[in-house]
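Design a sequence for this backbone.
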């Protein structure tokens, strides 16, 4: 967090007024990192879906974009189940006034599971509380194990809340609506209440018919939507991981019900591969298939791409959910709007005497890969964050070149003898070729070691240095951020080298 603030990745929103809980802003490097992540999603999901990988039936994957409003008709959220339904059951602590998501509360109990008449200790997965409660539980029971609070019978008279002293202070779970509301228009009347969207997905279902009617897409196809979503999270925490305003990148992929299971597997696997390809390749990334009892009533399957964040370790936190949503959403909107949203598929049904098909009318099924860009950016930062006291910058960021906000830096070794001019020309060339993908930095101040260190901290993958020899033999040194190794390269080869390394 300190590095993020110091180098301008993430700032607390309204910092100079003391901040506002659950809201974060991105500084220059963070804004560009997030844009690169969004662009990578757009490129690999919309423009060149799945890098050309074919669908389960060997077909080309087709996705189109959409951009929908944050505020929609309030009935949208009744149909989607968010009004009334978008509730997380919450548990309050009468002693500390803390409020916790029911499904997040865990308890330490004796290994045998039976605490007798002794108290058991609750926690919510943030390290200090967990460690504190664990210590107390071990003192009370010796060998312990951790189970979900929901597995204990209510009332929880023997449960000591995460920061409480006395047992029995946790209330039974209650619902808490997570949607922010607002009143559009001049008349502040409750009847005009509207909501800030809690997800981008619903905008897609609303325009399913418009997209089918206005483009040439045929099922199977997907519609992508990215943008801000808002949830009045009860306990925003863990830096940007759980914020009240965040950005999503969601795809709704529509297909025939018979093919939906195969498409679900396809998207689940591709999304996992995608996160790996942009730099989360290690063992900190897992794909977790939900148990049957975790699934929504309409879902055939859901899996989460999860990352081991420092604050969830040894556990994992969700980066993206890939859900089989059946035909739930289209059916709900059809019922509530009274507009028919089914699909007429001319490629199916009986074969006619003329060789054509009779056609089949059905409600498409939907597979939804729903990614969070803020959690994605945070995972990239956490994965890249490396401590090495032997280096000039003891902390540095090993960001994948595709998402790195600074693509390259050009340094004249000294601010004299024609070096700045050569560096300037090279900078111009790199700007022209790569400036649209990220920053190209140039810097003539301070020792070269300090300049490298600054670039390492910002995650810049390559630095090019113009020195005395450059003027004689038209070469520069290129320094690799991860190894610190340097090699000489002809000035004319720099663009080609960088393009290859950036995968462009
Ligand atoms: P969680 O269980 O962690 O609250 P969720 O299952 O409710 O997440 P989804 O509704 O599946 O999340 O949303 C899709 C993605 O949107 C998540 O995988 C996550 O990356 C992102 N997201 C959801 N809520 C938040 C939040 N409060 N802050 C930041 N990102 C979020």
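Sequence:
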């Amino acid at each position: 967090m300190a590095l993020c603030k110091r180098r301008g990745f993430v700032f607390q929103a309204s910092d100079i007024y003391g901040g506002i809980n659950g809201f974060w802003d991105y500084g220059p490097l963070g804004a560009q990192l997030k844009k690169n992540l969004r662009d990578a999603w757009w490129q690999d999901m919309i423009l060149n879906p799945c890098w050309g990988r074919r669908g389960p039936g060997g077909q080309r994957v087709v996705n189109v974009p959409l951009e929908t409003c944050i505020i929609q008709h309030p009935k949208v959220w009744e149909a989607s189940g968010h009004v009334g339904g978008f509730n997380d059951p919450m548990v309050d602590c009468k002693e500390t006034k803390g409020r916790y998501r029911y499904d997040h509360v865990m308890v330490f109990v004796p290994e045998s599971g039976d605490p007798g008449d002794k108290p058991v200790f609750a926690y919510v997965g943030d390290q200090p509380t967990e460690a504190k409660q664990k210590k107390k539980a071990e003192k009370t029971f010796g060998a312990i194990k951790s189970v979900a609070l929901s597995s204990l019978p209510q009332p929880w008279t023997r449960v000591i809340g995460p920061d409480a002293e006395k047992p029995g202070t946790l209330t039974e779970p209650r619902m808490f609506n997570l949607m922010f509301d607002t009143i559009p228009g001049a008349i502040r009347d409750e009847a005009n209440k509207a909501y800030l969207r809690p997800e981008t997905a619903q905008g897609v279902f609303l325009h399913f018919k418009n997209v089918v009617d206005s483009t040439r897409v045929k099922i199977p196809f997907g519609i992508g939507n990215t943008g801000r979503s808002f949830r009045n999270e009860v306990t925003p925490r863990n830096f940007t991981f759980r914020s009240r305003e965040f950005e999503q990148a969601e795809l709704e992929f529509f297909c025939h019900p018979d093919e939906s299971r195969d498409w679900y597997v396809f998207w689940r696997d591709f999304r996992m591969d995608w996160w790996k390809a942009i730099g989360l390749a290690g063992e900190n990334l897992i794909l977790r298939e939900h148990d049957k009892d975790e699934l929504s009533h309409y879902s055939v399957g859901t899996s989460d791409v999860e990352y081991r964040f420092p604050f969830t370790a040894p556990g994992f936190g969700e980066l993206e959910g890939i859900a089989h949503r059946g035909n739930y959403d289209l059916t709900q909107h059809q019922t509530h709007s009274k507009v028919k949203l089914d699909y007429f598929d001319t490629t199916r049904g009986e074969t006619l005497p003329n060789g054509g098909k009779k056609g089949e009318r059905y409600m498409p099924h939907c597979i939804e890969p729903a990614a969070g860009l803020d959690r994605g950016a945070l995972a990239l930062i956490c994965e890249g964050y490396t401590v090495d006291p032997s280096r000039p910058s003891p902390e540095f960021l090993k960001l994948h070149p595709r998402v790195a906000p600074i693509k390259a830096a050009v340094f004249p070794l000294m601010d004299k003898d024609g070096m700045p001019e050569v560096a300037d020309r090279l900078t111009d060339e790199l700007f022209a070729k790569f400036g649209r993908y990220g920053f190209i930095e140039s810097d003539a101040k301070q020792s070269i070691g300090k300049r490298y260190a600054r670039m390492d901290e910002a995650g810049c993958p390559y630095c090019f240095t113009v020195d005395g020899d450059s003027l004689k033999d038209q070469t520069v040194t290129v320094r690799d951020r991860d190894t610190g190794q340097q090699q000489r390269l002809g000035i004319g080869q720099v663009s080609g080298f960088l393009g290859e390394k950036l995968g462009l």
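The two ends are 31 Å apart (CA to CA).
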